[in-house]
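User: Structure please.
Assistant: Input sequence and predicted structure:
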Amino acid sequence: MQNTGSPGVLLRTFTLIELLVVIAIIAILAAMLLPALNQAKGRAHQISCVGNQKQLGLSMLMYADDSNEYHVPYYRNYLEGGSAPYQWSRYIDEEYLKATDSFFCPTTPEMRAYFDSQSVSYRYFFTAYGYNYWNIGTSYRYEGNVLDTPPARLAELLMPDTTILTLDAAYRTDYTAGANNATDADSGCCNNVPHARHSDGVNILWCDGSVRYMKVTPLDPWAQLGTGANNTFWGRK
């Protein structure tokens, strides 16, 4: 540090080397803090996502209470003779949830943008959470692989605390596009897959209304989640 100025006046200025040292220290501290800040941000997003699915679970259980203990059908018209698909997500939003934001994780703003760009009759196919529609939203796995079948009733689920109701999901070929279902197998008949968007894991809404996090293999989530109607997490058991 140099001293300059008139006699009797002491002025101090930093040398170039001293300034570079200070900048280097600040850069090192920032590099040390950034991962922790990112981790905290990711944790906050995950907590918000958990809250969203809890709201979905509450709304879906309210539907069951009003519907002789049937879970909400994947396509509501299948039980009511409608002529066009009326997605479970649209019905739950309009009749119970009344909060479209709850269908989207904070990490998926692009999914919300895509949703908003679509017509009302089509947009609810593209949310951030997939419904277990082969086992819960329909009886596809139990009545000849047919979607036009009733959903599960609460009493049919022997282990609701370990049976998936919804989970983080995305379109299999474009993770910026949403999904409103997910299946118990990596099958070509379904374009939607579990999406490991939270530190290589998914938030899962279970059929008892609880939400828990599970670590999965991002490119093969079924390695942990299982496949088939009678496996640990998807089937009615």
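The chain is about 35% helix and 15% strand.
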